[in-house]
Each structure stands twice: as C-alpha cells, then as structure tokens.
Amino acid sequence: MMLASTNAWTEVDQYFTSKLQVSDPLMDTVLKANSEAELPAIDVSPNQGKFLSLLAQLKGAKRILEIGTLGGYSTIWLARALPEDGHLVTLEYSEKHAKVAAKNIQNAGMDRKVEIKVGAALDTLPTIEGEFDFIFIDADKQNNANYLKWALELSQPGAVIITDNVVRDGRVIDENSEDESVQGVRHFVDMLSKEPRIDSTVVQTVGSKGYDGFVMGIVKG
Predict the structure, then answer these.
(1) Considering only CA atoms, which of 85, 73, 61 is closest in space to residue 219?
(2) pTM, rounded to two decimals
(3) Most-buried pick from 17, 35, 80, 201 (CB within 10 A)?
(4) List of domains in the chain
(5) Which regions of the chain does DSSP assign to beta strands (E)?
C-alpha cells in the first residue's frame, strides 16, 4: 500500500487531470505567463480550478465576486462558468499582479465579462454595488473574517461562498501558532461558527498544492 506523501498526492492529481480534463493550452499559457512575471506560484491547481467552475455552473451563477486575483487563473476558470450576460468582479491589491491578470483574461477572451478592481480589498469592497450569487475568497488570510463580513453584505439569499487555504497543512488546529495566516483562518472559522446567516462546512484537499482545504457555505434566505 502506498503511503500518503506529497509526491503521491501530486501523481494522483496529475492522473485525474490527464483523465478528466481535456488539453487546455490556454490555461497552461496563463500559468506560464504568471511564472515569467515572477508571480508567486499560489494559483489553484487545474483540478481545483475546474472544481470551482463546476460549482459555479451548478449554482447557475450570473454574478461572481472574487477576492484575490493574482494572475487571473482562478478568475478565468470562474468566468468560463458564466452565461453570456454574466459578470465577474475580481479584486487585486497588487498593480503588477492586476496587469498580468488583465492580459491573461484578455487573451482568454473573458475581458468582456470580467472587471478588475485594483487596491486593498477592504477599500474597494465598500464601492461595489449589487448582489452576488457566488463569491470566492482567496486573498490574505489575516483579513478572512473581514472579507466574510463583506461577502455576506454583498450576497443574495442562496449565494455560495467559497474560501480557500483554510487547512494550512494542518496547522489550523494550532491555537498557539505565531503564523498570522493560521490565526486569521482560526478567527474566520470562529466567526463562521457563530454566524447565523450562513450554513458552512469544510472540504479538506490534498494534491499538487499540498494539504489544504476549502470552506464552503450557503447564505440563508
């Protein structure tokens, strides 16, 4: 029996990618562009990107909010799930990252559906109008609780809220951790546990991105 390891997780990830995803040169080009621009390699994996896209399709999402753009890899996956009249707003702190993302999104033919807002998310969130039916939070973990507050304010009943990187290689259970990201996730989870407006759970993941997980929630009517 094969013991669980990062190598095994990566090989399994690659196996399912080869079997369940068609060749996608466009998305490969996005990752290459991000690497050449020296963006951190913290994009979701191809399987995770498709998972998000399928969730948005299952929801029938028409308005998506993404907090944390990076190079636009997850943005494009989500935009692919939108109908022709759909709209996605994505928030990115770094001007450099936003420029790379804008080019990637344009090359993917998704620029008519996607709007990038540059600046600290907690500054741009108050300027956003309308409600969203799907929200993906994948930014600085220290502010996850604050992002959740805004996500709830900007959600319509039944909206799906997904938050990435909540397991932190298992370190989330360390209440004494000095890692600000770990403590940010813990504060976020504590808030979720007391928040009556959302019903949520966690899905732990392993793969090419290591050991982590998503929090998934549905906003109550």
Answers:
(1) 61
(2) 0.94
(3) 80
(4) 6-219 (3.40.50.150)
(5) 63-67, 87-92, 114-118, 132-137, 155-163, 198-207, 210-219
